[in-house]
Amino acid sequence: MRIDILTLFPGMFPPVLDASILGRAQANNILEVHCFDLRDWTHDFHRTVDDEPYGGGPGMVMLVEPLANAIEDIQARDPRPAHTIFFTPAGTPLKQARAHELSEEFERLLLVCGHYEGIDERAYEWADEEISIGDYVLTGGELPALVLIDAVARLLPGVLGHEESAVDESFVEGLLEYPQYTRPAEFRGMVVPDVLLSGHHANIAAWRKAKAQERTRSRRPDLLD
Ligand code: 4F9
Hints:
Blueprint: E1 2-7, H1 14-17, H2 20-27, E2 32-37, E3 50-51, E4 61-62, H3 64-75, E5 83-93, H4 96-105, E6 108-112, E7 118-119, E8 129-132, H5 142-153, H6 162-165, H7 168-172, E9 186-187, E10 190-191, H8 194-197, H9 201-219
Parallel strand pairs: 1-2, 1-6, 4-7, 5-6, 5-8
Antiparallel strand pairs: 3-4, 9-10
Helix pairs in contact: 4-5
Bound molecules: 4-(1H-imidazol-5-yl)pyridine.
4-(1H-imidazol-5-yl)pyridine binds at residues 87-89, 114, 132-134, 137-138, 140-141, 144.
């Protein structure tokens, strides 16, 4: 998958994307990331990307012209059409199911990271989809873009090893993960549940399922609806 990122802060991406599993995915040519600086599509001395809102009010609004020109130029850099995603608190909340769909349906994504108080509404004409990663306000769309890349890229075939990919199964069932333990069997008086030390695989599976259900019911009842 090719992912293009349009941002005012291209330096935020490589430190995260070059580490760990996503770094390995890029080295293995499963994931290809290109970052673009929106200021490269400005023409004035100050490389202006925002202006005051029509109608007044606090904050600045991102200009439609550099956004539209940048998106069209970036689109043309590869013959594959990019599915263009804008990040905004007003977008559709991101869910695991959508991450799966994005990883399967598109060979190329273009992620547009807004800043300031918002984006000129006319720029959304260039969006195929608007996504929120949660009900809180951030300083910009960069962290949401990184969250989406992580959630989508780990689902691409070959990105996770067999050991790592098993971790996905529990969430796919729509429940929270059951509690996990590793050595030592006792730490400062806190013990690992006996059943996990029993070697009885059917009992262990039943215990984990019950714990996952119990935890989901108490912490995230919305997931059971
Ligand atoms: C985007 C917050 C997506 C949550 C973008 C300020 C944002 C956001 N999900 N906040 N700019």
